[in-house]
Structure formats: C-alpha cells, structure tokens
Write a structure and sequence with these properties.
Elements lengths: L9 H18 L2 E5 L5 H11 L2 E3 L6 H6 L4 E5 L5 H17 L3 E4 L7 H11 L5 E5 H7 L19 H11 L2 E5 L3 E4 L4 E4 L12 H13 L4 H22 L3 H14 L2 H11 E4 L3
Parallel strand pairs: 1-2, 1-3, 3-4, 4-5, 5-6
Antiparallel strand pairs: 6-7, 7-8, 8-9
Helix pairs in contact: 1-9, 1-11, 2-8, 2-10, 6-7, 8-9, 9-10, 9-11
C-alpha cells in the first residue's frame, strides 16, 4: 500500500526558498549557460543580481569542460546555432555524469522539428528542472499543442497533467510559466500568482527565469528551485513595474530589485502567492 502524497505547506516551501537564496548568495555557484544568443546579456545579469556566477561558454569542448565543475547548468534551446547544437548533448552528458543539476528550457519545442527531437533525447538525461511555457511542456510530454514559436497557445491548466508526468519521468520538477505559474514534482503542485505583465514586454524574461532556476538548483531541491526562482523573478518584477516608465526602464529596475531581494522578502511573497495541492 502506497503512502498518500502530502502537499508541502506554503510556509515550509517559503522557508526552504529563503534558505536557498541565502545559501546561493553565500556560495556564489558557477552556472554554466548554453542559452539563447538574443538574451545572453539579460540571463548573465540576472544571475549576477541574484548572487550566482554566470559562465556563457558555448564552444564545443569548453562548454562540457565547464559543466564538470559548475554548480548547475542551463540548457536553453532558443537559438540552436552549429556550435550550440554540437555542444548541447556532450555538455548534458558531462553534467549528468558529474551529478550536476541541469535545467532544460525547451524553447519552441513542438513547433520546430530539430529542437523537438533534440529535447526528446535530452529528457532521458533527467534534468533537475524543465522550465517552459504550457505549449512547450505539453510538446515535451508528447502531446499536441497550440504553440506559436516561443508563444504559448495553451493555458497552464492544460499542461498540468503533462507537467506531473514529465516530472515523475525525470525525477525532478517542471516549472510552467503563465499568468499563474505552476511548479510540480509530480507529487506536489504549487501554483504561484506572482509577477507583472511588464515581463511580457521585454525579450528574455523567460530565459532569465531559466538561469535563476539553475542558480537555485545548485543549492536546493528541484521543487524549491522552481518555486523559489519563479517567485524571485515575479516579486522583483512587481517592484520594478512600480518605478518603470516602460520596457526600457523596466529591465534595469528588474535587475536592481533582484539584487535587493532578501530571503525574508522571498519567503513573505511566496507564502502569499502560493497555492499548494496534490495532483488528482
């Protein structure tokens, strides 16, 4: 007889996320990023602001070398140039072999065939966290989607069961971005009502979130990493939107707020934002 799953109370999850942020800043983990060339600068600056040390090496040979010594690895499939395509599989293999947590951001999977096939192979290497929109997560789980490039055509609820199944398959967590984010490890679902619409007006917010998830994954468990990073970015966005005049001033304000965010701030916002449940 199996023991029924018991949801983690928001207060406990918030405490774990706060400890993770404090630990992250104390340890400054190296986060090796194979990421979208369009958003490299924002990803690197978000990692610096949260307290991590970004490495943006994508050359074959160097990328996997760094993966062996990094605290975490981010694999973002946004711009699959020749070098990145050649480096992705060896980098993931090294990370998996070294026990280094790695995060998969399956950008536009389900829409474009090359990256869809690549992402399907990468899932077998058991990412600590998969972070994507609802359409990308559904596609990665083998379901039909209504995605359009990097834009989701499916809502978060439509991806919930797929996210649970994918998390159980990888043994990690899946973080689905949307108006209300969903993070699940297949046993506990956390919905997070946090963030601001200004995040949708700039290029790279999702990529930056992938980097933050990797930074948190370097110091804590996958569910806490997904929930902590999503809340950190969302809380920073809410504060930044209060002072920004538009997208141009929003990004520097966002980085400032990530830098200023404390463990106590994170815990307080997560408790308010989170609704925790066990999958049906």
């Amino acid at each position: 007889m199996t023991t029924p799953a018991v949801p983690c109370p928001p207060e406990e999850l918030a405490a774990r996320a706060a400890l993770a942020l404090d630990d992250l800043r104390a340890r400054t983990p190296l986060v090796q990023c194979l990421t979208n060339e369009v958003t490299t600068n924002l990803v690197a600056n978000a990692l610096l602001a949260i307290g991590a040390s970004p490495a943006m090496a994508s050359a074959p040979g160097e990328a996997e070398e760094l993966a062996g010594v990094a605290g975490a690895v981010l694999v973002n499939l946004g711009t699959l140039g020749p070098d990145q395509r050649a480096a992705v599989a060896p980098t993931v293999a090294v990370a998996a072999g070294a026990g280094t947590p790695w995060v998969l951001d399956p950008v536009a999977v389900g829409v474009l065939s090359v990256r869809t096939r690549l992402a399907a192979r990468l899932v077998a290497e058991r990412p600590a966290v998969v972070r994507g929109n609802a359409s990308e997560v559904r596609a990665l789980a083998g379901l039909t989607t209504a995605g359009r490039g990097v834009d989701a055509g499916d809502d978060v609820d439509a991806a919930a069961d797929a996210a649970d199944a994918l998390a159980l398959r990888t043994g990690g967590a899946v973080a689905v971005s949307g108006p209300v984010d969903l993070v699940t490890d297949g046993r506990t679902r956390v919905r997070l009502a946090v963030g601001d619409r200004m995040l949708t007006t700039v290029t790279g917010a999702g990529c930056a979130l992938g980097g933050l998830v990797a930074a948190f994954a370097a110091v804590t468990d996958p569910l806490t990493a997904g929930a902590g990073a999503s809340t950190a970015l969302g809380a920073a966005a809410e504060r930044a939107a209060q002072v920004a005049r538009g997208p141009g001033s929003f990004v520097p304000a966002l980085l400032d707020e990530l830098y200023a965010l404390t463990g106590a701030d994170l815990a307080e916002r997560l408790v308010v934002a989170a609704r925790v449940a066990v999958p049906a």
